[in-house]
Amino acid sequence: MSTFISKAILDFFIAFGIVLGGALLGGMGAVVSLQPPTQTMLDVAGRIKIWALAAAVGGTIDPMRVIESNMLDGNLSPAIKQILYLIFAFLGAHMGTELVKWVCSSRG
User: Is 26:44 a contact under the CB 8 Å cutoff?
Assistant: First the structure.
């Protein structure tokens, strides 16, 4: 079970880091190109959320194949693990997006 938890935590933080890092670097690029960084950061965070999810779980097709093949064979445990990995990665990407929204909205 510790291997499952370790991979789930890793997927969470990979997705979180992709969204946060992409938004921050996009904001820096916006400053260099004389565009509004806040709006750019929000746009980037929203656009790369799904890609962060895909990158965290190791690709877009392989996890779906694992879910499909195991469900059809009646092995629910590997399929449930893959679904939980996707959920953890989604939570990481979503929390990264929410953090960017929070940082961009707090002025003062």
Answer: yes
Tens of pLDDT, residue by residue over 44-101, are 999 999 999 888 888 767 777 777 777 777 766 777 888 899 999 999 999 999 999 9
**C-alpha dihedral, 90 to 61 to 85 to 91, nearest 10°:** 0
Cβ(47)–Cβ(93) below 8 Å: no
Distances (CA, A) of 12 to 5, 19, 31, 54, 75: 10, 11, 29, 12, 25
Rounded CA-CA distance 16/97 in Å is 8
**Which parts of 29-104 are beta strand (E)?**
none
Dist. CA 108–CA 51, nearest whole Å: 32
Q: What is the pTM of this model?
A: 0.84
